[in-house]
């Protein structure tokens, strides 16, 4: 590829921000309102931790010679079992996260049309959204990519717009009064929203996947990854805190469409409805893309021999339809299993579980950076600095695990331990392959 057709650092930075934002933010103001505006401290902690993770992932992608993303990174230190566990937990995390995205779409959709659903009806509506967005992927990646590339702006435009113009309606007194409404101890309050803030940054590891189409990747990829993560952090922090100064805390904590509520208060209910419509569109577009992505993740693992071959089969349009249908059946069961008294409660359960399972490959990758750099003969001084940053990322990851709560840790541990059993079933094809006799 010629230099003129490659991405510069600014283009890659913008692409990184867009990829990260997606639909992860649209329910966050509600969850953070339950803690109070002191959740800004959680944002700052997560921003530092996420930038450490992003920098370390950029180094992993730069020096690794193995394919498979985080699975390839983990294999350097933990062998094929580490590769399997990284792919397995990442796949499970995406499977869970997509259900949470579908619930976000249902939350905004119910506010848009003005209906109240029972917990069972919310579960059924979530399943319907998941199936629609899965079946829409049958046409293949090109159509999915075109739709997702347009719909993502349904989130970005209102959120960035709020960051710019929301200050005209911002009330410092309202913001201060919502600082710690439940009078929680500082450490508990900050910890209770760490998992939710990390949820908004999930996907940061994919930012270094475009290194081969970037000018001077050794210099530009780390800058873009760090800059993109910082840019997303600024947008997240500003938008969620502006809302907290516009909408009363109690109203925000009980809303299933917080950004729509904010725009309705700033302008008119009609404008709020338009924003809700944009958010529903964006959620469905994001879910459309992520349902295809998760099928590709499972396909890659199946191609390597980790997952059942059903996930490898593709149609003439190169779409892994059988894999997608299998995945959406599991997601439908998960939607029913996690039915909660309210939509917000179900969303919180899924987000915490998605974060716990996603952190496992993060930790494996951070631990592998030492040997990845040794294998690439990186200058010891540069390697040491990167290893320290990876350690910061790992420490933050463990803190996020701790902060996710006992229930999420319990189910996440069961899911992870189940992975070791599953690896035992496929391990002979890897562990016996190169042994003599």
Automatic annotation (TrEMBL):
**Name of a matching Pfam family:** AA_permease_2
The record's subcellular location field reads:
Cell inner membrane; Cell membrane
Task: Name one molecular function that GO assigns to this entry.
Answer: putrescine:ornithine antiporter activity
Q: Which Gene3D superfamilies match?
A: Amino acid/polyamine transporter I (1.20.1740.10)
Listed under catalytic activity are:
putrescine(in) + H(+)(in) = putrescine(out) + H(+)(out); putrescine(in) + L-ornithine(out) = putrescine(out) + L-ornithine(in)
Q: Name one GO cellular component term.
A: plasma membrane
Question: Could you confirm whether the keyword Cell inner membrane appears in this record?
Answer: yes
The membrane topology term of the UniProt record is:
Multi-pass membrane protein
Q: Which UniProt keywords apply?
A: Amino-acid transport, Antiport, Cell inner membrane, Cell membrane, Membrane, Symport, Transmembrane, Transmembrane helix, Transport
- Membrane-crossing segments per the record: 7-28, 40-58, 88-108, 120-138, 150-170, 182-202, 223-247, 274-298, 319-337, 349-372, 384-402, 408-426
| Keyword Magnesium belongs to the record | no
Q: InterPro entries recorded for this chain?
A: AA/rel_permease1, Amino_acid_antiprt, APC_superfamily, Symport/antiport_PotE
Biological role stated in the UniProt entry: Catalyzes both the uptake and excretion of putrescine. The uptake of putrescine is dependent on the membrane potential and the excretion involves putrescine-ornithine antiporter activity.
Q: Which family does it belong to?
A: Belongs to the amino acid-polyamine-organocation (APC) superfamily. Basic amino acid/polyamine antiporter (APA) (TC 2.A.3.2) family.
PANTHER family, alphabetically?
AMINO ACID TRANSPORTER-RELATED, PUTRESCINE TRANSPORTER POTE
Q: What is this protein called?
A: Putrescine transporter PotE
